[in-house]
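Memo to structure team: turn this sequence into structure tokens by end of day. - J.P.
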Amino acid sequence: MTTFVYADKFFLTSGEVGPGYLEITDGIFGEFSNEKPEKEAKILDYSGKWIAPGLVDTHIHGYKNHDVMDNDADGIKVMSEALLSCGVTSFLPTTLTSSKERLKDVATTIGEMYQDVNGAKIQGIYFEGPFFTEKYKGAQNPSYFSDPSIEVFNEWQEASGGLIKKIALAPEREGVSEFVEEITKNGVVVALGHSDATLDEARGAVEAGASVFVHAFNGMRGLNHREPGMVGAVMNLEHVFAELICDGHHVHPDAANILMDATGKDHIALITDCMMAGGMPDGHYMLGEFPVTVADGTARLEEGNLAGSILKLKEAVKNVVDWGLATPAEALMMASYVPAVSCQIDDVCGSIRPGRAADFVIFNKDLDLEATFLDGECRFEVQ
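Reply from structure team:
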């Protein structure tokens, strides 16, 4: 069955096009055309609207009162469906530092159920830790920190059925270069964060194959003119991507702007780092093993430190445009194509291309989400 979607503007990797018609056949993208199709087919008329690829959240711990570390398949299914209301059609369920055994159990659970979700698609697992250091631990439990171990990672990867796409570590741990070289050879992305590393230590990890910096500015040694540190590394090293939380609390808009100018927006992956309180009222929640208070748009530990976010990815897109940091096309690219590329999942998500699953979102000209389509079917619509 063939359907054509008409809209004023389409955001493709080649640039903005439209008005025109995008073909969808049996849930798969076809070609775009400026001309009305000659063959008879159903036309979905979104005059005045903008069509973009489904958003891709590559760093998200929870949503709608469920946490990946709960190790609950049904909870992850709730997350998957609820994320459609955020414009997210693909995501990487993200773990927290925990015991080796708990992480293996979570990897096993997701590996067994990831194809059974009915909403946003699970394109892999992101292990955030446990190979971190204490100074910038954030909401990670330092009692589980250790040096990276290929043997332990292979246990987790086997348990997941090969689903771990990305793992984060601190560059100053022992054995980092050997670990990074080994697992990147097998197609796993290494991210750097929760770290007090120097520029040289970060550079060594990048030269070994690391390619992403975890929530830039947060949980890392800051920029100093005599020791550029982790922030200096993400701004200065080539061929790396920066995760960025644009909720207005984690990073000042001007700092975000400086980073975007330094790296180029094609190397900025907007993420949420959302925890279980996303989409929920203010109150008391848990992030892994830590109690968190959610109020005034933030999630904080008892001592006041930020503990993940309650950001929705569609809000991050709107924020960077409203702050004057990016055009709509750039903002949407940073929330779809770039995160997909950064995690090496751009072969299955992050762009509108012929032959790909027709996962896309509809925005109005104020960048308010109006609908989310999955495999060519409308699965969320603002009433």
